[in-house]
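Title: Prediction job returns without error message
Component: structure pipeline
Severity: low
Priority: P3
Assignee: unassigned

Description:
Job completed but the reporter wants confirmation the result is attached to the right record. Sequence as submitted:
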Amino acid sequence: MNRKMLAMLVVWAVMIMGVCGAKAETTGWETDFGKASTNALKSGSYMMLDFSGSDWCGWCMKLDKEVFSKGEFKSFAKTNLVCVLVDFPREKHQSKKLKDQNAELAKKYGIRGYPTVIILSPKGDLVGQTGYQEGGAKKYVNDLKGMIEEFKKQQPRQEAEKKPIEGVPAMHKP
């Protein structure tokens, strides 16, 4: 009986790790920061960096389940963001290059806990920082829109007019 239970637990753990580790591969999230930066600049999209411990961090899994996997978020992200998973898993294999890149990004942005979400402008300027928030995808998207709108207000008018964010009023010339 103990062997059966142990075997079932092992199978369950492998399945959970596979689901959590599959985020970048199955949802269009990028893991290569350089490639994501180029895409953001070319498209005029903002970047969202999700610093996560995808296979061990309970709050990271909760954020993924309650926000990133929901249609409201996916729709907003598809038209407005280049999403980057900056992952620090304990069990999932990563190349040395990816581990080094992620460690460098965590150092650059002063990451001290997970999940931490960093929003960057298409040019790579820091727009804001957040993490897990209660309220679901709709509230999270509204908070991201507000963060981006505030950033745009502080930028020269030409930058703010380049690409409107869905659901955020564009700035108009007087």
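Comment from assignee: result matches the submitted record. The chain is about 55% helix and 15% strand.
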